[in-house]
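$ ./design --mode recover --in tokens.txt
reading tokens...
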């Protein structure tokens, strides 16, 4: 239940940030790309976990998935300073 609630908050937050920072002329295209990533991402992650678990063990798949997740978050955080400083107030004032 907690994981589902956290996922819902994540999806809504991500959608809000993307939509509020996308120019009007691109909003439909960006929303479509976000939908595809949101739908395919978990399946790709499940495939990765299954392949790693099949080749090694479930523990290796679990630990490597966690490390990849932390690494991806660190990479995105390091390369997108604007995302770290995102504020709805700043976004509304910029318009």
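writing sequence...
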């Amino acid at each position: 239940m907690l994981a589902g609630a956290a996922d819902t908050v994540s999806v809504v937050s991500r959608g809000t940030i993307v939509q509020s920072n996308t120019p009007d002329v691109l909003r439909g295209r960006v929303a479509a790309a976000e939908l595809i990533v949101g739908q395919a991402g978990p399946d790709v992650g499940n495939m990765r976990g299954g392949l790693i678990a099949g080749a090694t063990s479930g523990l290796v798949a679990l630990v490597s998935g966690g490390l990849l997740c932390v690494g991806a978050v660190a990479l995105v955080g390091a390369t997108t300073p604007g995302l770290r400083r995102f504020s709805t107030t700043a976004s509304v004032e910029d318009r």
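exit 0
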